[in-house]
Amino acid sequence: MDLQGKHIVLGLTGGIACYKAAEFCRALVKEGATVQVVMTEGALQFITPVTMQALSNRIVYTSQWDARAPNAMAHINLSREADAIVIAPCSADFMARLAQGRADELLSLLCLARPMERVPLLIAPAMNREMWAHPATRRNVAQLQADGCTVLDVGVGEQACGETGDGRMLEPQELLADVVAFFQPKLLAGQHVLVSAGPTYEAIDPVRGITNLSSGKMGFAIARAASEAGAQVTLVAGPVSLPTPRGVKRVDVRSASNMLAACMDRADTASIFIATAAVADWRPKQASDQKIKKDGSGQPPALEFVENPDILATLAQSPRARSGALYCVGFAAESHDLLANSSAKRLKKGVPLLVGNIGPATFGQDENALLLVDAHGTRELARNTKRALARQLIAEIASRMVHKE
Ligand code: CTP
Hints:
By secondary structure, the chain is an alpha/beta fold. Helix content is about 35%, strand content about 25%. It has 16 helices and 19 strands. Helix 1 packs parallel to helix 3. The chain starts with 6 loop residues before the first strand and ends with a helix.
């Protein structure tokens, strides 16, 4: 669970997006966080404390005059025990209050009273598009950021008022991903990571082709982990239907040739290339324009194959990679002799780091085990979820970049 051991103060302010806060609260709890809900008077107009109490399993605070705490200082107690304060939804009015340092009700009071160096404040704005675009709100966003507050993005689209534009609160799962990412160390801040993922599809004719069992899950998990680590991430994905990780720019491709072109286009600005794709080694020499029909002879069509370009080797041999400006990481999907095959593949591809795994044991699964091979030796990352392994791998890559290995 990504938020195990974290204590979150979840603040709700007045806005229709309060209905999403209920699901967000549940999502935080499911990830292992303990959640203390604090609601403003405005929030109470949209959702009841009973709902939030049931979801958080804690009595909700709504007033600075709450007499439950023996010291009568809810604002101090609540803000001291939190690992973060997250305000979702955060109304335009509440942003103005935070920007001014107002303290005449419990939620703004505890934000002001929090120890800034150890209790971060994150806000998820929610408002009509005109209010979001208003110079006063722009000013407040800038002021809050200058004061160290993390202002999460807003969603775009249809709004409760019937208008369409920016300002809607993010969806609960998006908010959760942003909160989880917030707690990850920013090991790759300033880096641009390019990831290839998934299988490729090599057409035989308009309705048939050759592909493989790669699910893309490892590559998508790595793209997510790199983004959580603060990198700008481009994910070049073969045909898979996985959701795009938050904050990641996705480029969908089909064949190995498409994937090579997409990777080459972005390699000039990337500083790390992680090749997780299971690229087809061969493709039919000429895809037929029309569906190949049986001719009644019982003979299968004679397909001729040509070798596909090696995307990893091409990028690893580029001048940028040779000069050290592009750090290339390869994967090896093997069925046996993992160490010997991975070591040989590292040298063949000319990459500083190669990650071996057993293909049939990982394709489509949520778990994996990895063997890292570099010039200094090997390191095993024991069986774990692909998400956990992805984070470990990102940390390994970051440390090798720092030490220029
Ligand atoms: N790779 C690539 N382009 C290819 C083939 C492989 O970029 N045309 C990359 C993969 O993304 C992976 C690494 O090279 O990072 C090794 O892929 P793998 O399929 O295990 O190895 P192959 O090069 O195909 O070697 P072999 O088939 O001999 O095992």
